[in-house]
């Protein structure tokens, strides 16, 4: 489960997903990924109502496409 998924399940939306907001840490000098952190929560918003997975997908759809 990703940090964005956990935050979304708790009703917190990042609003600024793009490659520059991810910090990737590697294992030593290899290309093996040790961790990935989501940065810059300045635009994050707490949503007070229950949100469906479909609503989350619709919200993040453009951000997801831009990452691929």
Automatic annotation (TrEMBL):
It comes from the Eukaryota. GO terms for molecular function: ATP binding; protein kinase activity. SUPFAM superfamilies: Protein kinase-like (PK-like). Residues 1-68 form the Protein kinase domain. InterPro entries: Kinase-like_dom_sf, Prot_kinase_dom. This is Protein kinase domain-containing protein. It comes from Collybiopsis luxurians FD-317 M1.
């Amino acid at each position: 489960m990703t940090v964005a998924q956990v935050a979304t399940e708790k009703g917190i939306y990042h609003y600024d997903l793009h490659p520059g907001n991810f910090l990737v840490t590697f294992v030593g000098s290899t290309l093996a990924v040790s961790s990935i952190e989501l940065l810059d929560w300045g635009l994050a918003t707490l949503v007070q109502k229950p949100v469906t997975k479909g609503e989350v997908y619709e919200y993040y759809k453009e951000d997801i496409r831009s990452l691929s």
